[in-house]
Amino acid sequence: MSKIGQVHSIETFGSVDGPGIRFILFLQGCSLRCKYCHNRDSWKLNAGRPMTVAAVITEVLKYREFFEASNGGITVSGGEPLLQLPFLIELFKECQKHGIHTNLDTSGGIGLTARNRELLTELLKYTDLVMLDVKLMDPTNHQALTGVTNEHILAFGRLVATHKIPMWIRRVLVPGLTDSTIDLEATAAYIQELGIVERVDVLPYHPMGENKWATLGASYPLKNQRLPTATEIAKAEAILNTGLKS
Q1: Three-state secondary structure along 105-167?
Q2: For a designed S-S bond to 32, which of 37, 106, 146, 153 qualifies (C-beta 3.0 to 4.6 A apart)?
Q3: What confidence tens digit (pLDDT) does each residue in 139-180 have?
């Protein structure tokens, strides 16, 4: 029987969430509570639209010719897609049967219990690329920003590295919160340690999710937060790129 996932939304022609043209499946549910989250409505796990793996594959295959022309594929994001591991494993397995490139866009937001490690090991058999969002290296500051510490997130990155899955690292750059030179340098050292990171993307903070918070009756934590300057973005990129494998 085809497994059922809770889906937040679908984007059919994504161009910034992995190589080529991507079919992006946003799954429902997240264990982090990031102050700048632009998908605030994705936090609750059971608030999405139920879809079977078979139904998702039917939709994905409609765009196969675009994937082949652009070296694209499917990206599964969230929320936190790792909260729906059995569904994700079956989905990626089916995608690879059809020759579709699979990309996992994650914050590594699950605990690495023995059972989760077993499931993640199975998932990585069918994963062609991992995009890991490393928000901060300092665990105390990470908890203040996201509501959780980051030990399991960094451990997830190391687990991916043991399986030698290509990885991109993403960093949302929020002035005064995620842009300290010390933390950026620590992130670069982590990237170097992993040894599998092919690319670093610095994502400038934007307040586009503020309206979603208001719609949900929630107070946006970063009201009046300024945007990063071009100079600050370039500095972060320069530091983080020192960690890339040669």
Answers
A1: EECCCCCCCHHHHHHHHHHHCCCCEEEEECCCCCHHHHHHHHCCCCHHHHHHHHHHHHCCCCE
A2: 146
A3: 999 999 999 999 999 999 999 999 999 999 999 999 999 999
Alpha helix (H) ranges present in the chain? 53-61, 64-70, 85-97, 114-124, 139-146, 151-162, 181-194, 210-215, 230-241
The full set of domains in the chain, from first to last, is: 4-241 (3.20.20.70)
Give the CA distances from residue 20 to residues 125, 198, 243, in Å, rounded to whole numbers and listed in that order: 22, 16, 24
Looking only at the bridges linking them, the beta strands covering 101-106 and 129-133 are parallel
Residues in contact with 245: Cβ distance below 8 Å, sequence separation at least 6, in sequence order: 192, 195, 196, 197, 198
Q: How many residues does the chain have?
A: 246
Taking the C-alpha atoms of residue 135 and residue 132, their distance in angstroms, rounded to an integer, is 9
